[in-house]
Amino acid sequence: xxxxxxxxxxxxxxxxxxxxxxxxxxxxxxxxxxxxxxxxxxxxxxxxxxxxxxxxxxxxxxxxxxxxxxxxxxxxxxxxxxxxxxxxxxxxxxxxxxxxxxxxxxxxxxxxxxxxxxxxxxxxxxxxxxxxxxxxxxxxxxxxxxxxxxxxxxxxxxxxxxxxxxxxxxxxxxxxxxxxxxxxxxxxxxxxxxxxxxxxxxxxxxxxxxxxxxxxxxxxxxxxxxxxxxxxxxxxxxxxxxxxxxxxxxxxxxxxxxxxxxxxxxxxxxxxxxxxxxxxxxxxxxxxxxxxxxxxxxx
Length: 299
What we know:
Layout: E1 12-18, H1 23-32, E2 41-46, H2 53-60, E3 64-68, H3 75-84, E4 92-96, E5 100-102, H4 106-116, E6 120-128, E7 134-135, E8 138-139, H5 144-153, H6 161-167, E9 176-178, E10 180-181, E11 185-189, H7 190-195, H8 208-218, E12 222-233, H9 243-261, H10 268-298
Parallel strand pairs: 1-2, 1-4, 2-3, 6-12
Antiparallel strand pairs: 4-11, 5-12, 6-7, 6-11, 8-10, 9-12
C-alpha cells in the first residue's frame, strides 16, 4: 500500500527530469499506473525540451505538472527544483529518469521495503536493460584506486579487478545495503533528502547519484537495494544524441567526485594523475562514439 498522512492525503510524489524525452515519457506515465495503488502527483522538471512532449503529457494527465527550470540546469539541479515544489507533508519521493518503464507494484514494493528499513534514506529497484538483462544499479562507493581503474580501463578491460569490485555484478541478488544506487530510479525519504540538501548541483550529469549515495551513507542513512521491485531503463535517450558533450561531462564528474574526497595538498599528484588519465580516456571515448554514430547514421 502507498503511504498517506493523517488526513488521508497521499504522502508520495514522483519527480522526473525531461529534455525532449519523446515517446519515453508517455510509457513512463502509462506504466506508472501499474507501479503503485496510489495516483501520486508527478512533476516534470523540464530542462528545455523542444519536442512538445512534456506539454502534451501534462495537458493529458491531471496529476502531472510541468515545471520549467528555465534552461538546461542538469539532472541533480532539476530534481532539487522539483522536490522543493512539493508539499512538506510528502514523506516519500520517487526520483526517476523519464525513460523508465515501471514493473507491476514496483513503487509499492519499494515503499514496503522502506517500512522494513526505517533508516533507509534511498531505496532502489532492480534495473533491467531493454533486452531483459540486469543492469548493476547497486554498487560500492569507488575509492580513488577503484574509481581510477574503472574509469580508465573499464571500457577496454571489462574484467579488471577495480571494475569488478566497483560494479558488484557478482554479488548475490538480495535485499541489502549498498554504497550507492542508480539515480535512474530511486525512492527517497524526504527527511533524508533534505538532511543532505539533495543532489549536488555542481554535477551537471553523471556521478550525481554516486555522490548522493555516498553523502547519504556519511550522514547515517542507508542505501537499500530492493530487487523484488523491477523497472526497465531505456538508457541514454538524451546522452546518446550528443556524445561529444556527454562523455566529457561524465569524465569531469568522475574527477570532481574523487577530487572532492581527496582535497589535501599532499594528494595533489594523485589528482593530477587522475585528471590526465581521464582527459585522455575522454578524448578516446568521444572519437570512438562519434565514429560509431556516423556508422549508424550511414547504415
